What we know:
A: alpha+beta, five-stranded antiparallel sheet, 21 strands, B: alpha+beta, eight-stranded antiparallel sheet, 12 helices, 27% helix
Amino acid sequence: MRRALPADGLLTDPRALKPYETDGLTAIRQVPWLVALPVSESQVRDVLTICREHGVPVVPRGAGTGLSGGARPLADGLVLSLARLNRILEIDLDNCVARVQPGVRNLAISEAVAEHGLYYAPDPSSQIACSIGGNVAENSGGVHCLKYGLTVHNVLGVRLLTFEGDELELGGRGLDTPGYDLLALIMGSEGMLGVVTEVTVKLLPVPPEKRVLLAAFAEVGDAADAVGALIAEGLIPAGLEMMDRLAIQAAEDFVHAGYPRGAGAVLICELDGVAAEVTADLALTRRVLEAHGAFSLRVAEAPEEQARLWLGRKAAFPAVGRLAPDYYCMDGTIPRRALSAVLREISELSVRYGLRVANVFHAGDGNLHPLILYDANQPGELERAEQMGGRILELCVAAGGTVTGEHGVGVEKLDQMCAGSPVRSSSRCIGSRRPSILAGAQSRQGGTGLARCAEVGGMHVHAGRAPFGNLPRF
Amino acid sequence: MAAVSGERDAAARLQDAVRAAIAGGTGLRIAGSGSKAQLTEMGAASAADRRSLLLSTAEHSGVLSHRPEELVLTARSGTPLKLLEQTLAHNGQRLPFEPPRFHGGGTLGGAVAAGLSGPGRPWLGAVRDCVLGVELINGLGERLRFGGQVMKNVAGYDLSRLQAGAFGTLGVLLAVSIKLLPAPAVERTLVLELDPAEALAACRRFARSAFPITATCHYQGELRVRLSGAEAAVRWAAQEIGGRVEEAPRFWQSLRDHRHPFFAEASSLWRCSLPPAAQVLPVATQSGEDCLTEWGGALRWWCTRRNPGEVRELVAARGGHALPFDGGFAARQRAGVSPVAARLQSRLREAFDPHGLFNPELGAMDAD
């Protein structure tokens, strides 16, 4: 392995391995046996070959910002870091695509093409740090995916290496490819099907106009109904976010963004496009929000004013972190029509379990992020928080939704996946009994015995010390 | 829930038919309305040689749920596209991927299985972009559900999008959940007189602009551009782009459904998927060649009598690939890929349909 990698490309020293023991899901830790840091595709291939020959499980890792433990190492395994494959290989302005290596940061793509008036649309909150390879693995979304789609809608092609050592080129610069849509299958497959070594992404023109609205409501139910009404009116906002009373108070105490303190909920709505369209949409949005009881409406035109309206939302996670010693971040998606009812049931659970919950979430696509506040130093509180989290996910499924909207299954939600979800049949269909087409599979699925049940964790944040404290999380 | 019409649940009967096929070792040819038979008929040597039985989903129809504010519709696979589009139009919505309705037919299941997207594909999304979940019967006779009814869902492998374009070889689709879009307030078509190279250059400029374009079509010296959106935005873009405004509301439907005169006259028709900016294809009009270009340059219908090897080479040299749009279209799908991809495709097929029951005639065909 040393011969296959650069001099500093193989980590074996316990101190050097330590940073790789976890990803953004810090509750779950495991120091790996080895970490490989290849700088080229051929080195990636060599590492995979050696691991295959010696039966060493491989866990691929991008920037390690994921929130479901998808990059959690195995004690007897190798972590394959793609962080050094970080070159933008080509910017093709004629076809509006960029071809990049997997370790390129999400935001770096948009920065590289900004001078041409283009950008890469999916913008997960960790975009200053997360890598495009990780985005492919998780099918990452972002604040703007309501209008611009997820990674699956914005990646045109990938190159990948399978654990068997095969090279696979999927998609390209055109739109249709013959045969089964393996490209779609790779999106969100959490590194289980192969190691991505190149990604071709679609670039979009930067919208010439943008407006941000902040609407305050007395009751959370009114705001939830307004969300459904906006969509029913034919509007597709670029972003549509919601915060409840507790989250608003926390954010105000923390960053003083000027949100109305008495409000039961606020909606932050971003509209973009050509000037004429934005003006028309803005008028309609105002009417709908007012008809649903918005008592305060602010519209930001200048970029700094817009940033201010976004500030409270973007600071919400750390702000909530100040309210209690620990919080547990959930991630489930529900149909929009169920927003009001599910939020009400969450507040009932909050009373029943004696734990406060702050809601800060992507309302436009029904992607909830309830933050359960607890104190790990109080006996039993952690267990109560986890039980309550489980109930919340059950609510999401019962409402017609899913146990993970954007954070992924990773190691966090393997149990929920096994409990009668479609995934059991999905992994059978594509062959958990055929580990040969799976790269990470041998590491993770192979390792799913009793041990896994004890490892169920979650995104727990203690004393406001979120993983990568300098990363925005929203 | 919206009014349910044409309600017929034949899932149990379809499941029985699959079980009977397993027991009898017979293949099943899955069909909806049969409107795309011209893309699948060449798989078998002749009708007499076919040992497979016809399995029709046409009796399995009806909208299962449609809440306009969710922008999601779930319907049984045999639901006619015509009926779906009427239901949606009633609520000011549409299927983003504009599936073709050949001969006026077409079902939701067939549209997903064929994976053919209409004129708006680069701007509004492809079939696979809009599939949120499916229910199907696999080759073991089991009913399975994949995906769901919400836009954001990363719970497990995305096996629902995989059904788009698989031509039924991975299972019998029972129901599909689809993402919808609001219908635009206004649509307008502009016509610009441009030769093929100028038209591609114009499309390259459009791709860098914020114009609310949702379709382009270049044919015989004219580039048609569809603008969709709010009245003010469409008016502004029309002024900026120029050209003449055409009052031909049915043009894009006729293009989508291949009722446009180009398709009536085309023989030896190739469907070429290319990087949008790829150089124009050679068109020798004196020898009957012709070309119609959609999707801002990314889809080119090439009518040519050159030998297949030359056609493939010319398209591959431009970074794309070509398939003859004829009775072998479905059967050649999986042949046009690399050996590694072909192996993975076979494994997927084996996992979903270990006895090879579904559409056995598709998949055995070589590229030529």
